[in-house]
Structure formats: C-alpha cells, structure tokens
Amino acid sequence: MKNDALLSTYENITNEWKETKMLIDKKLEDISGRSSEAGLVDVTKYIIKGGKRFRGFITVAIARSLGASEEEALEAATAIELVHSASLAIDDIIDKDTIRRGVKVAWIVYGVEKAVLASLLMIPVAQRMIEKYGFTALAYVIRSWEETVRGEILDAFSAEKMQAKDYIKLITLKTGSLFKLAAVLGGLVAEAKWAIKDLTIYGLKLGITYQIADDIVDYLSYHRGFKPKLDPSEVLFERWAKEELGAIDIDNIISLALRRLKKEAKDASRRVEMFPSNKWKNILQVLPFFTAEKMLEKAGINLMF
C-alpha cells in the first residue's frame, strides 16, 4: 500500500496535471486554426487530439517549482506537445501503424501527404513559440528534435542489428530527448540556469522510465495475444532484459525491467532534492513513479512504492 503522504502527492499530481492538460489542449486548439492557409486545419487538429500531455506538464511543474507562473510556462509546454505530436504522426507512417489512442492514425484518415506536411509545419510553429524564451531555449529545441529523429532512424533501420546494451541508448534518443527538453525548458522559463544540469538528467531519466514502462506494456500485450508481433525495438528490449539484466523467462523479464525502471525513477527524483521546498518539488520527486504507473495501468501492473 502507498503511504498517506504519497497518496496525497499522487492526488496533487492528478489534479494539477488535469488542469494543465486542459490549458494546453485549449492552446493547441487555437494553434491548429493557424493552418488554414495551407488547408491543413482538420489534419492538424486530428494529429494533436488526445494524449496525456505529460511532457507539457513537466515543463509547467518545473517552472512553477522554481518560481515562474503557469502562464509564463504555458507557451513552452504547448510547443513541447506540438513537437511530440508531430513526431508521433511521422512515426506512425514509418512504422505503418494504423491505430493510435484507439482511433485510426492521421495518415490513414487524411493520407500520407497531408499527415507529413501538417507534421512538418508543426515543428517551425513550435520553434517560433520558443523564441520568446531566448536563443538557448531555441537551441535546445533544435538539438532535441535532431536527437529524436536520430532515435527514430535507429529504431526504424537498426534496432534489429543493435547490441542488447544499446537499448538504453536507443530509448534515450527516441524518448528521453523530448523529456529532457521539457525539463530544461521549465528551468529556462524560470531563468534558473543553475538547475539546467540536474534538469537535463531528470528529464532523461524520466524519459527512460517512461519508455521502459511502455515497452513492458507492449511486450506483455504481445504475449497475452493482443498484439500480432513485437516491433524491432521491443525485440531489443527483450534481448536487453536477458543479456544485460540476466532475465530467463517472461516473468523474470518483467520483474527485472521493473526493477531497472524504479532505479531510473529514483535517480530522476534525486535530481530535484536541492530545489526550493514547495508543493511542486514534492510533485517533481514523485512524478517519475506516477508517470510510469499511469503507463503500466494498461498492463494491470500496480507499482508498489
């Protein structure tokens, strides 16, 4: 059982996350209307629809923990979600996925051309939104997008050939890069340059935690008969668990992967120990575990922290 203090923080996270999500969704809705000249309003709205907005929430939570307001952080948080949505739409095309979040993906509904063009347009729109926070913030966006694309390239063309030990490298690029960006932007919004190093590691560790949880869910989905085959990155996850963690069967793979997930989450949590003591610091310390647990709910796994 979770203790009362942890349950209280979980409740705080849930409430703040839902409120922030509504604000980001509203801003994304407004932004999607700007695609009218290109005739991409419908497809843009479709691409950005849904999603947990975890990355945007991270930006807001960090900014507020360091003294900035929600309003000051909202533009950066929305930009993160634009970049993330674009990456998912492109990823769906590359992987030939047809369903995401329970509905048909954008390229199936609107065609490859419109899905690609709308996604490509979302990236410079996000960059323009970040300009207000200065050159350093913009440079982080460009670098993180490059890292994300490099991760997608590895995932699409090299995952089957990669060594088991390179699994963490792959998910650090593919997933950790945008979580890192979300964390760093929160610090830059609050003009807390002293925190950037810790926030970089916090974001990367949180991203690794998130992706391990996601791969656990997909791996179990396959073995429970809900998924026709393992993707190359999920095969790499299995090899990583066996060769690097010493797993010997399915149950062992899951238990050892969960142990590593918890280690990454704890490492992330420690990176905000020197932050000012407030509600938002508590949220940030628990957020890596909360995020993983939300992902693992789909597999019926309840983390016992």
Provide the fold topology.
Layout: H1 4-32, H2 41-48, H3 54-65, H4 70-95, E1 99-100, E2 103-104, H5 106-110, H6 112-130, H7 135-157, H8 167-189, H9 196-223, H10 232-243, H11 250-270, H12 279-296
Antiparallel strand pairs: 1-2
Helix pairs in contact: 1-2, 1-3, 1-4, 1-12, 3-4, 3-8, 3-12, 4-6, 4-7, 4-8, 7-8, 8-9, 9-10, 9-11, 9-12, 11-12
Textual characterization of the structure:
Helix 1 runs antiparallel to helix 2 and helix 3 (54-65) crosses helix 8. A hairpin with a 2-residue loop joins strand 1 and strand 2. The protein starts with a helix and ends in a 9-residue tail after the last helix. The chain has a single domain (4-299), classed as Farnesyl Diphosphate Synthase, CATH 1.10.600. A two-stranded antiparallel sheet has the order 1-2. The chain is mainly α. 73% of the residues lie in helices and 1% in strands. It has helices spanning 4-32, 41-48, 54-65, 70-95, 106-110, 112-130, 135-157, 167-189, 196-223, 232-243, 250-270, 279-296, and strands spanning 99-100, 103-104.
